[in-house]
């Protein structure tokens, strides 16, 4: 079972909102996720309002061998850089 951590879009057509999910690769864009790890709102002003990830659950899936999409990995890097500055 190949698990990926990626974004899953929901919301209105003009107001996108994304869930960060752990999902089997074969399930496609609208498949049921194994676990919802957080959310991403690209229309928010501040980074802490844009991205929210449950770090413990994210780390658990990474340790189990899940791969992240490029977008999710860049969001995680931005969050870690922001937390390092504080």
Largest sheet: 5 strands, mixed
Total number of beta strands: 5
How many separate domains make up the residues? 1
Measure the end-to-end span. Answer: 38 Å
* Content of β-strand: 25-35%
Q: CATH first level: which class?
A: Alpha Beta
Shape: flat
Can you tell me the CATH topology? S16 Ribosomal Protein, Chain: A
Low-confidence stretches: none
> By helix and strand content, what is the structural category?
alpha+beta
Helical fraction equals 25-40%
Q: Could you state the order of secondary-structure elements as H and E?
A: EEEHEHEH
Level-2 CATH architecture = 2-Layer Sandwich
Describe this structure in words.
The chain is of the alpha+beta class. It is about 35% helix and about 35% strand. It has a five-stranded mixed β-sheet. The longest helix is centred in the C-terminal third of the chain and has 16 residues, at about 70-85. The termini are far apart. About 15% of the residues are buried.
Properties at a glance:
alpha+beta; five-stranded mixed beta sheet; S16 Ribosomal Protein, Chain: A; 34% strand; 86 residues
Helix and strand topology:
Blueprint: E1 3-11, E2 16-24, E3 35-40, H1 47-50, E4 51-53, H2 55-63, E5 67-68, H3 70-85
Parallel strand pairs: 1-5
Antiparallel strand pairs: 1-2, 2-3, 3-4
